[in-house]
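Researcher: Structure for this, please.
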Amino acid sequence: MKLYHAGKEEIREPDIYLGRKNADFGQGFYLTPDREFAYRWAYEDYVVNGYELDLTGLDVIRFSREADWFDYIFRNRRAEDTLAADVVIGPVANDTLYNTFGIISSGLLKPADALALLRIGPEFTQTAVKSLKALQNLTWTGAQRITDATNYRELVRKEEAEYQKLFAEYMSKVM
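Model: Predicted structure, token format:
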């Protein structure tokens, strides 16, 4: 499995314990199989690292934008990661990308409405390497420094504006 990670530096030896415990898929090293997604979230002078992950022998949980994904995310956001897995693969929760995180996870919305809001916007996939066993199966393949992120930043700005519009429309119906 080819994966990518955008950051400020080359990361040849990732740390699965560096990330937040209350991240959507719990603590781990987050990557994406979508090369373009990694580039769209990189800034100038960032690095997009490339990796290969061999899933052989690993316990992998896969999610789609359904209720079990929603439940898992919300447990992790409360630092209650209850599923033991080496790797978790599933959709990115767009509220973390487009800065509406607090509203959806505040508890003020019915779960069905929170899930509907999480489904708004484009669907991107993330992969969280969560165990040392999985980390041993992850190989760094190289990195590319971003010298001009203008087009990607503009694309993200447009996506975020559309997301905020759709989010506001849905919120006006439920509040």
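Researcher: Any notable elements?
Model: The chain has seven helices and seven strands. The chain has a mean pLDDT of 90.
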